DNA sequence: TTGAAAGCGCTAACAG
DNA sequence: CTGTTAGCGCTTTCAA
């Protein structure tokens, strides 16, 4: 099934013009006479000619390709971001190379592939990289924008939301509701998002004279969060409120609480998530959460990347966008105060 | 931010060898002496040299790239398939070019981009194309595999599941449960999956002496399915069971039924979905559905594509894989029979 | 084993 | 406006 590869030369021969005339006909800013263009187009159609993008890229030194790297699509928040950002770039005439970060290490190899593939920019979704990895790409002169993760390296643009403030709100709000045994359901322990949300949370609790009651790790994943929840409630003193580092885990937690542990949300346990993915608003879940301004994040990230690609010496930026508490029904109504009833499993 | 582009020639100069020697050092099956290899590698490291994939592709005429085309990632079923298939190809050393089908037409342009981008194969997720579109790609000699959609063209490999049988089961099973007003919540009306599931469903009902009570279109989308559900129950004689053409719509329907229309599932209305995406098993939904053998589908599709890429004259295949009913709690228990209680909105 | 030379298919000066 | 000419960075014969 090897295609015979019709080249511009073949078309030129058939049309009775030079090869460069053919090339011009397929370039946007061409200056070709009507007559030649017609002859060329006719010949091209007859032969089924398509310009070879690879050859074009080689000479123009522009691949019009952007790499998108992502950690996983299990979380619908990220498939949403991926789709939106991809459609945007596609509309701008870019191709998208998709890379998944390998589950256990080997990310350096992916970084290498990206560099070799001559992409003009890299969009990273929730990718944690260390300073060295970051500098490898940046030193190569490829613009990089990271969405929803922070790296300690100013050479790379970063778009995120105010995880600390969100965590702070969650902690203080749960305390203000009268909860006293407030737990943290952690995401990937090494991720900046997890750290920042956790730190804010702890400070928020502290502002109300509380400390973090307990912590379990859910790695931002559904199944892991179910297990973490079971662990919380197998303990002698289970929490009466949970702040989860993302929505997916928060929902996992509620599912486990309600349908496996026989507890009621929010009467027995209040739950707060983070992201506000579409599903969080579904009535079954009705999850109180911190809304990340996803549209704005995508807009800023794509804008930033395009800017760095097009403008020489545009400086990388670190953006922290505000989050918004979305009060729904996974948390108690305010004003009732007091201690919560306890139900053991 | 233009990278200065270190070429193999630069490395050669520094290492004091010929340019082709450098090339050989970066080719898998090279025959290079230990001494030259060391010199070259040292020079390469010093300069930060990376072979240019584009130039390599041009000369080897193999891009080691596969295009993945998808309609939307709103449905987690497809983000799951995308992730799994992508990881597989990535592991096999392929790059993935991601394309989204534009919402309203303009798919021909995307097809054109794909052809021009010199990919070695195309994986289409739930993409509906007509015979002409199909033949354009196939005539170009690019292997194509379509997952979860059927096109009337044998030149293209197609991997799907037995939509008709699934529909048939849903129709006859709901009837056997005693339901008499059984409706169809349709996906994209023009899609083969929707047609096949619908046809099977109608036959399944017929086998029990019933006809389709009513039909609304949800376009495989959450919001549309919510509206469709409202329309079902605004009618003078609402259904007492719904077969939804996919899980996402089935869940949308249940959300609307339970939390907006005040109805109970399965007591007032039974609901059956299609796909068995992970979320369908979450206890809140506990959706009875038809499981598509997603792992097998991915395996077969990737296998088929690789085979067609590597083996000249491997013939395209059309695979129909079996679906499995997953009985959960969105349908009544069997054996109760009888008419259902009716609740108006 | 290594280097020289010939392109892959295309764009981009440069003359005409 | 058109054709000629020179490469883009690499792989791959072919001699040495």
Automatic annotation (TrEMBL), chains A, B:
<keyword id="KW-0804">Transcription</keyword>
<feature type="domain" description="HTH lacI-type">
    <location>
        <begin position="6"/>
        <end position="60"/>
    </location>
</feature>
<feature type="compositionally biased region" description="Gly residues">
    <location>
        <begin position="336"/>
        <end position="345"/>
    </location>
</feature>
<keyword id="KW-0805">Transcription regulation</keyword>
<dbReference type="Pfam" id="PF00356">
    <property type="entry name" value="LacI"/>
</dbReference>
<dbReference type="InterPro" id="IPR010982">
    <property type="entry name" value="Lambda_DNA-bd_dom_sf"/>
</dbReference>
<dbReference type="Pfam" id="PF13377">
    <property type="entry name" value="Peripla_BP_3"/>
</dbReference>
<dbReference type="GO" id="GO:0003677">
    <property type="term" value="F:DNA binding"/>
</dbReference>
<dbReference type="InterPro" id="IPR000843">
    <property type="entry name" value="HTH_LacI"/>
</dbReference>
<dbReference type="InterPro" id="IPR046335">
    <property type="entry name" value="LacI/GalR-like_sensor"/>
</dbReference>
<protein>
    <submittedName>
        <fullName>LacI family DNA-binding transcriptional regulator</fullName>
    </submittedName>
</protein>
<keyword id="KW-0238">DNA-binding</keyword>
<feature type="region of interest" description="Disordered">
    <location>
        <begin position="313"/>
        <end position="345"/>
    </location>
</feature>
<dbReference type="InterPro" id="IPR028082">
    <property type="entry name" value="Peripla_BP_I"/>
</dbReference>
């Amino acid at each position: 099934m090897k295609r015979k590869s019709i080249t511009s030369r073949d078309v030129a021969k058939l049309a009775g013009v030079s090869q460069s005339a053919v090339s011009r006909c397929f370039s946007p800013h061409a200056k070709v006479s009507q007559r030649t263009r017609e002859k060329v187009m006719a010949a091209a159609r007859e032969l089924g000619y398509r310009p070879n993008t690879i050859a074009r890229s080689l000479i123009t030194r522009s691949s019009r390709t952007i790499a998108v790297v992502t950690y996983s699509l299990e979380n619908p928040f990220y498939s949403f971001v991926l789709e939106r950002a991809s459609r945007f770039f596609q509309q701008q005439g870019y191709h998208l190379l998709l890379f998944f970060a390998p589950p256990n290490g080997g990310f350096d190899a992916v970084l290498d592939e990206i560099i070799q593939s001559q992409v003009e920019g890299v969009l990273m979704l929730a990718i944690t990289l260390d300073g060295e990895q970051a500098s490898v790409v940046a030193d190569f002169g490829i613009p990089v924008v990271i969405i929803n993760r922070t790296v300690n390296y100013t050479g790379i643009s970063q778009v995120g939301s105010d995880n600390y403030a969100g965590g702070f709100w969650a902690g203080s709000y749960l305390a203000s509701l009268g909860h006293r045994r407030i737990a943290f359901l952690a995401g990937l322990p090494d991720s900046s998002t997890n750290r920042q949300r956790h730190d804010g949370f702890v400070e928020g609790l502290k502002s109300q004279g509380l400390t973090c009651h307990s912590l379990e790790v859910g790695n931002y994943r559904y199944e892991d969060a179910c297990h973490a929840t079971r662990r919380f409630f197998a303990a002698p003193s289970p929490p009466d409120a949970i702040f989860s580092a993302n929505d997916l885990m928060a929902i996992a937690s509620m599912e486990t609480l309600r349908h496996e542990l026989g507890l009621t949300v929010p009467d027995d346990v209040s739950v707060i998530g983070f992201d506000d993915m579409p599903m969080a608003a579904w009535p079954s879940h009705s999850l109180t959460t911190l809304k990340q301004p996803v549209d704005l994040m995508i807009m800023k990230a794509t804008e930033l990347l395009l800017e760095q690609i097009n403008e020489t010496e545009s400086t990388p930026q670190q953006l922290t966008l505000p989050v918004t508490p979305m009060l729904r029904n996974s948390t108690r109504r305010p004003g009732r105060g007091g201690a919560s009833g306890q139900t053991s499993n």
